[in-house]
């Protein structure tokens, strides 16, 4: 039997039309921010968040007062989750070593890992206060050693969310702004009269935030294309419909356009999961969001073999991939395109989103084909350096360089090499001529 779709999502053409509309809105908005600066940012904040302040940056006193609203129990949980993220980020950082090697006598090559000098962290929060996103972006930047970390989050129910502000502050943010959407991302990247621009943008967001980051890439760096959340459940009959449906809807509640895909080799499990999704949507408090997402972006795909499931999964390249089969490690060994894997029924995407320690800012829209997720290394630039310490090495490398430059037609390049051959090797190479081979020079 062929691969079967028991349920399909909206067509690629319809999604592309939505993307085009989003792109036009973002382009016009970013142009407005570039032209009018703080005035444009303020108008957008009032229009979209109904939030008006003289300055959208929180003062130290305001931060302290807002954090005081967080209960002791919630603060302990925030600190626990942040510690898990920091611990894993530190282990990753410790694995990234500066190196220096002598590749030939007198030739020293090396690289240094240098932190990006400023980063803007976007923490979503208009619909749901994304406390965990502050750990993922701000705290990880601190581990990397970024000297200037600014963070933006929209107001929640008309005011800064205390838990999000606490996570930002504890994570190491030097500047905190209560701004959301395109205006936040644009202000951090472009700069305004009161906000100095950053070198790198990180953090997830809705379709408008993701598109703004895409359009700003090049002007600043970005972590990756992290748009509306995506989830895939790869399952066989070692698990039941309740766990499959729960894991699918647990991510579909993020927004109205969050793809959720069940990939299975059991038609019975597929049909049971569809029924279970209907049951859970009847009791899920966030069903108003999750149902729209499931209706428009949910998919159920039935394959005959595990190899077919693997091929389909790599083609979709979902952000989150929950694997619950009799061969989870086989998928770990063979899958190549995804954001993050969640292996076995004991784990789940929500753990990864909130507390377990891996970073939840992950590639979407097939970006997992060419990049992984946000991690401490995204905040570091690996810069190489070279050093020649002996006359003999300068002459030997210079001779090779001379000939190879002229092979490509670059006379000026060749003369950089020839000058060293003359000065440090004592060989009178005619101007613009290739340096002789070592045996010929002798």
Count of β-strands: 14
Q: What share of residues is helical?
A: 40-55%
Mean pLDDT: 95
End-to-end span in angstroms? 74 Å
Strand content: 15-25%
**Order of strands, widest sheet:** 1-11-10-9-12-13
Low-confidence stretches: none
Tell the overall outline. Answer: globular
Rg over CA atoms, rounded to whole Å, is 27 Å
Major sheet: 6 strands, mixed
Secondary structure category: alpha/beta
Number of helices: 17
Describe the structure in your own words.
With 442 residues, the protein is of the alpha/beta class. It is 48% helix and 15% strand. The protein is built from 17 helices and 14 strands. The protein has helices at residues 12-36, 38-49, 60-67, 72-95, 131-144, 162-171, 181-190, 207-216, 241-252, 267-281, 287-297, 306-316, 328-334, 349-354, 391-407, 411-425, 438-441, and strands at residues 4-7, 99-104, 107-115, 119-122, 149-152, 175-177, 200-202, 221-222, 231-235, 260-264, 298-302, 320-324, 340-343, 380-388. The protein has a 6-stranded mixed sheet, sandwiched between helices. A 5-stranded parallel sheet has the order 6-5-4-7-8, sandwiched between helices. The protein has a 3-stranded antiparallel sheet with strand order 2-3-14. α13 (328-334) links the parallel β12 (320-324) and β13 (340-343). α1 (12-36) packs across α7 and α1 packs across α8. It is globular and about 85 Å long. It starts with a strand and ends with a helix.
